[in-house]
Amino acid sequence: MTHELGNMTMAKALNEGLRKAMEDDPKVVIMGEDVGKLGGVFRITDGLQKDFGEDRVIDTPLAEAAIIGTAVGMAIRGYRPVCEIQFDGFVFPGFDQIVNQVAKFHNRSAGLVKMPITIRIPSGGGIGAVEHHSESVETYFAHTAGLKVVACANPSDAYWMIQEAIADDDPVIFIEPKRLYHAGKSEIDDEPTPLYQARVLRPGAHVTVAGYGMTVPTLLEAAKVAADDGIELEVLDLRSVSPIDTDAVVESVRRTGRLVVVHEAPQSFGVGAEIAARVTQRAFYSLEAPVLRVTGYDTPYPPSRLEHEWLPNLDRVLDAVDQIMEY
Amino acid sequence: MTHELGNMTMAKALNEGLRKAMEDDPKVVIMGEDVGKLGGVFRITDGLQKDFGEDRVIDTPLAEAAIIGTAVGMAIRGYRPVCEIQFDGFVFPGFDQIVNQVAKFHNRSAGLVKMPITIRIPSGGGIGAVEHHSESVETYFAHTAGLKVVACANPSDAYWMIQEAIADDDPVIFIEPKRLYHAGKSEIDDEPTPLYQARVLRPGAHVTVAGYGMTVPTLLEAAKVAADDGIELEVLDLRSVSPIDTDAVVESVRRTGRLVVVHEAPQSFGVGAEIAARVTQRAFYSLEAPVLRVTGYDTPYPPSRLEHEWLPNLDRVLDAVDQIMEY
Amino acid sequence: MTERVHAVQPEPNMVQLLTPEGQRVDNPAYPLDITDEEIAGLYRDLVLVRRIDTEAIALQRQGELGLWASLLGQEAAQIGAGRALKPHDMAFPTYREHGVAWCRDVDPLTLLGLFRGTNLGGFDPREHNFNLYTIVIGAQTLHATGYAMGVVRDGAVGTGDPSRDTAVLAFFGDGASSQGDVNESFVWAGAGNLPVVFFCQNNQWAISEPVERQSRVPLYQRASGFGFPGIRIDGNDVLACLAVTRKALDDARNAQGPTLIEAYTYRMNPHTTNDDPRRYRLGSEADTWKLKDPIERVRAYLTREAGYESDFFAEVEAEAKKLAEHVRSGCRELPDPAPESAFDNVHVTMPPELREQRDDFVSFVAEVSA
Amino acid sequence: MTERVHAVQPEPNMVQLLTPEGQRVDNPAYPLDITDEEIAGLYRDLVLVRRIDTEAIALQRQGELGLWASLLGQEAAQIGAGRALKPHDMAFPTYREHGVAWCRDVDPLTLLGLFRGTNLGGFDPREHNFNLYTIVIGAQTLHATGYAMGVVRDGAVGTGDPSRDTAVLAFFGDGASSQGDVNESFVWAGAGNLPVVFFCQNNQWAISEPVERQSRVPLYQRASGFGFPGIRIDGNDVLACLAVTRKALDDARNAQGPTLIEAYTYRMNPHTTNDDPRRYRLGSEADTWKLKDPIERVRAYLTREAGYESDFFAEVEAEAKKLAEHVRSGCRELPDPAPESAFDNVHVTMPPELREQRDDFVSFVAEVSA
Ligand SMILES: Cc1ncc(C[n+]2csc(CCOP(=O)(O)OP(=O)(O)O)c2C)c(N)n1
Ligand SMILES: Cc1ncc(C[n+]2csc(CCOP(=O)(O)OP(=O)(O)O)c2C)c(N)n1
Ligand SMILES: [Mg+2]
Ligand SMILES: [Mg+2]
Q1: What is the spatial distance between Cα A30 and Cα A46, in angstroms, rounded to a whole number?
Q2: Pairwise CB contact (< 8 Å): B300 & A93
Q3: How many other C-beta atoms lie within 10 A of the C-beta of residue C37?
Q4: Residue A87 in contact with residue A141, Cβ under 8 Å?
Q5: Chain centre distance of CA C16
Q6: CA D147/CA D141 separation, integer angstroms
Q7: Residue closest to A140 by CA, chosen among A119, A161, A155, A166
């Protein structure tokens, strides 16, 4: 049985999820650039200011450090701010407030003050944008103690995960794969999956392919193609980047013996490295091959004319699958 | 044969290295908070303003974004700025200018403009400081394409590496292990080692232990103690965190079959993960055991009364060696 | 935060030297001796950069550009400021200063790569003393400030030698005035008495946010608290923009320190070709600003006061056509970069790990396309 | 950047209600009706917080504290501002506002954990409406601004109900005035007409940098360009600090928006116990400021004008002794945290990976110490 909301895009699902969160808790406020009348440049907050008022959907001055810093103050006052960063590349002016304040405040106060702040970041590439509009910044936050980082990959998760993130008393970096905002409609599940659990999207015996957010559709596609060559991929949507549902990955790898991790962020010192390190430690004797990574390269995000070859695309994932099968 | 400078502490060696760099190139300028009369809170720039003038050793207003951002402008004008960040935890207000501008400018200009900026960051813990004064921030920069990250671990490297970093036409994040500034004197080598090469400090047959900066003395200590139990550790000072001298690590691991990576930064999504992932991929069949990591924990840096147990100390390194020998 | 606390006063004591009707007015503080021929030259600039803009918008519609940020309505601010620069001065634009680029002799095609997605800028800022476009709001004001620090250290201010004394011109928008970077650049410029002029095009909007979201007082007033003068000018009056910027740049070159100029203007088009202004502002707003059009008033002056006739305007039109054609065809001919070029110029010296990634990439691409 | 371009004017039009000699002066703009008894109360505060400071410095020398940031010379600014607060107002300190903490009834021992290294602050800011100390320069001004946004949304300004209307007081230093965060907080407070008062203790130095490195004009002037009033007060005059802060907080509570107060004072001690001021300033500077001591003038007033006699001063002295003893013994008795407590309160709900690290740590520590 599925949710009465029925079919919708990820953009609409996020909008509905935010609406629900604001209805459920009067302390939830949305802050960001152009989130009011415009509904954000991606229209994710469309109509919310009209319905909840300018006090709860706040068009802020143009300053990311202040968007995050004032959210910290509002949280101390008892609010539950949801900050929108307009594009991934523009989170960095707010980085100090996120890393030194949001991430640490609960700890510094010996657990007496909570920081239930959700920071929404439309992320990743593939939309033909200019520089700073296609970055994958999750690793910076995953490496920061005190933060949680999640990424939705389908409308139903978008609808539920944004509500779970807002309801979480810990600060959550919410990665929205902007390329998928309008990539098609699907049903909203009747029930949420716990926020920090991975999900097996497709079982398979030969290779585990794990990703999150924007890369998940590519993994499913790869599984279809590989199946024609008789290679069964087990597709894992991690959903949470930090904490990682390590048990789920290890459990799968114990069966397949092979793991390919996929993300758009640069490879080095990225999420794939952590997963490789953990899985290799916990499933050392089950691994038939080293964990392989299909990721963005160690370069700035390229000009859009180059992005499709630069990104971890279907071909590159299939190539990694072939490579790992050769061990 | 060793350098006529003779014996000195790391603090003095950095000071002499900076002095030499300023003598060698009139375009080298030092910028930061309190770097002038005070010589910096650690006295690393002691006497330089007196000798090179206020135009070349610049006491800046209190704003890290501006220290980095103006350095970018000076680089465009043909200068070679050396920025001092007073303490690791205070680099974050300058993070946007580092990640979006310093790291990318050469690339954005199609290689027509160089960013020969060195950013010195006194780093790490163990000095009994208050919060934000003991962080290890190297991973954030290592994950950022366009930046190089190095860390010195002894006076001679400090003297040579700071000069090599400043002479490098690429931006370099220069990690200074503040705990070692005055940890004892030693000779200055007559010749520099290439900046991005690791160095074997002690050969050993059983386990490779790799670290950089602040943790290196602990590794050497561990090697001594382990030797008494008949376990030979090969101690690798990585020196460069990005790029990593992967060949050197792999070559060592091919012989020892075992690798323990040590750093103070939090474990998850840290430098150890990247090394584990690379080495496992390149030396899969040589590994007798998974790569183990001895690192800071996934928490904010603790109150100083807890830091010595929290840090990757001798006992923790030896424990990891025991564990890895059991495979 | 959420109510318009005080609306920003409409246009108080704003320097204007040419009325919307095309009447010259004098301002003793900003004497401008300029020949009608020079004014005709400015007219030409205004028309040509508007034409570049029009073409770029068309190219975006045709899918030749991924995005375009239109300067429509801001031509006078950009031409006035741009023409006040000397060749050896340095300009730091945002992403909208196509008019300034024109004044710096930057071929319009040079600007298109960023918007077409064939490069990330890809030119040398020092070739025309015009920096790469900067998209991260406010960041370039610190670069300009640092560049000015370099100018001072080069002994290129206050020498009295016009070929040596150098000024820096930093552009930013009304929205950008809220960024920490911009205010820090004010701190440094003021405390350091640096030769930098801050030129704020207050086009009333930061995407969907009116300027009152950023400040309840006029933006030019921001400067005084940092220890340097601020002045508001009619940003649709090319003569005022020229005269006031010229004065400010002279002061900078003469070691008199920074100035903040607020050019009061209007963004006639959507924020970019992606934007839909109907969601947040009334069309009537643009209608009233149409009456203050930066080009019409110059045309009116030239016809009524300076006796320029249709043949002149026809010439300029013809030149605009040629330029448009250059932009159209040149854009389509912009070469697509080679896939592996993504690995170029990440570093001056490529690290081994990256070289390995590059080689894998190259052989893989070859394989796939084979 | 590097020469003292204009020295900051010494002390122009600075509000003063009590001269260094202990003479009351009236200022029509800031009427203060205060009884001698209340002034005696302020004297007590001043003496006690100076005593706390003296003890903390001694404890640092004895190795009981890792570090201490002394307030010596800034007692009047902190007591005046602190006593202007109502219990339900909220204060956001830097790391030096021990005097404000005192006014908020925060036990001095609560402050010592951070400096002793037994915790990172470790108290609930809402218990005494006094935030955790913030070491990252300027960051707290944005927290204060956001808190004020919350106050507005709670309908706790401008209601006329004194038990409801709430103001926020944000502390920062002269050096902090250069940080983007601080200037962004001015932008938001001005544009949003927020009930926040910015209290800048200009103690003339940011570690080794004199205030001219940060600004060539007096800092209080910074406010006007953001759309709210700024005022400079004698920061060594507790009455001026009380009166002016009271007025500013009242304005904030009455929805009149923000105020910037620059308390002109002096850091008599090194920046912290780690600092060596002999490297960058003359001892004679401190000597001249000694003549403006914040406590002496109140003592002079109480003796000469209000007839207080030695027994009163003896009482305060006795109380100071008791307090000192409390700080001394209390500090030594501060419990060392349990090693595994480093893993507590990183998150509200501990993720599995961290729990694993914690369990390994606990068993390892047990092993080692076994
Ligand atoms: C740091 C940062 N945050 C957000 C953005 C997204 N953005 C692009 S333009 C813009 C509005 C800029 O307004 P203004 O400064 O007035 O310049 P204008 O576009 O009006 O010329 C915003 C928010 C950005 N580019 N950089
Ligand atoms: C972002 C940041 N940069 C640098 C520092 C190091 N630091 C600590 S105090 C200080 C000077 C602060 O001066 P001021 O704001 O005048 O306050 P004061 O110490 O004089 O009370 C500096 C640079 C810091 N704590 N935070
Ligand atoms: Mg604008
Ligand atoms: Mg100070």
Answers
A1: 12
A2: no
A3: 9
A4: no
A5: 20
A6: 10
A7: A119
The span from the CA of A147 to the CA of A150, in Å, is 10
Count of positions (residues) in chain C? 370
Nearest chain D Cα distance for residue C136, angstroms:
15
Q: How far is the CA of D176 from the centre of ligand 4 (A)?
A: 8
Asked if B55 lies within 8 A of D346 by C-beta distance, the reply is no
- Gap from CA of A21 to ligand 1 centroid (Å): 28
Query: C337 and chain A: CB distance < 8 Å anywhere?
Result: yes
- The amino acid sitting at C42 is L
Ligand 2 atom at minimal distance to the Cα of residue B93: 1
Shortest distance between the Cα of B52 and any Cα of chain A, in A, equals 33
B133 included as an active-site residue: yes
* Chain B contact for C217 (CB, 8 A cutoff): no
Report DSSP state, residue A111.
T
CA dihedral (C43, C44, C45, C50) in degrees, to 10, reads 90
Residue from C216, C221, C224, C260 whose CB has the most chain D CBs within 10 Å, to mutate: C216
Between the CA of C326 and the centroid of ligand 1 the distance, in Å, is 29
Q: Is A131 on the interface with B (CB under 8 A)?
A: yes
Residue C280 is a catalytic residue = yes
* D330 CB burial (10 A radius; 0-12, 13-18, 19+): middle
CA D129 to chain centre: 13
Give the C-alpha separation, B72 to B66, whole Å: 9
Tokens, residue B248:
């050197």
Determine whether the shortest distance from the Cβ of C208 to ligand 1 is under 6 A.
no
Residue with CA nearest ligand 1 atom 17: C173
Scored b (16 or more CB within 10 A) or e, B243-254 reads bbbbebbbbbbe
Quote the CA–CA distance of B95 and B89 in Å, as a whole number: 11
Strand partners, C206: C209
Mutate to test the interface with D, among B37, B38, B323 (most CBs of D within 10 A): B38
Contacts of B93 in chain C (CB under 8 A): 180
- Give burial (CB, 10 Å; 0-12/13-18/19+) of C5: middle
A90 lines ligand 1 (CB under 6 A): yes
Per-residue pLDDT of chain D (370 residues; tens, 9 = 90+): 333 333 444 456 899 999 999 999 999 999 999 999 999 999 999 999 999 999 999 999 999 999 999 999 999 999 999 999 999 999 999 999 999 999 999 999 999 999 999 999 999 999 999 999 999 999 999 999 999 999 999 999 999 999 999 999 999 999 999 999 999 999 999 999 999 999 999 999 999 999 999 999 999 999 999 999 999 999 999 999 999 999 999 999 999 999 999 999 999 999 999 999 999 999 999 999 999 999 999 999 999 999 999 999 999 999 999 999 999 999 999 999 999 999 999 999 999 999 999 999 999 999 988 7
Q: Which phi and psi angles does D351 have, rounded to 5°?
A: -70, 155
Whether pTM exceeds 0.95 = yes
d(CA C232, CA C202): 10
Whether residues C66 and A34 touch (CB distance < 8 A) is answered with no
pLDDT along chain A (327 residues), means of 10: 80 98 98 98 98 98 98 98 98 98 98 98 98 98 98 98 98 98 96 97 98 98 97 98 98 98 98 98 97 98 98 98 97
Q: What residue ranges in B186-282 does DSSP mark as E strands?
A: 199-202, 207-211, 233-237, 240-242, 259-266
Catalytic residue among B106, B133, B206, B263: B133
Taking the C-alpha atoms of residue A309 and residue C361, their distance in angstroms, rounded to an integer, is: 9
Which atom, in ligand 1's list, is nearest to the CA of A34?
23
Could you tell me if B139 and A269 are in contact, meaning their C-beta atoms sit under 8 angstroms apart? yes
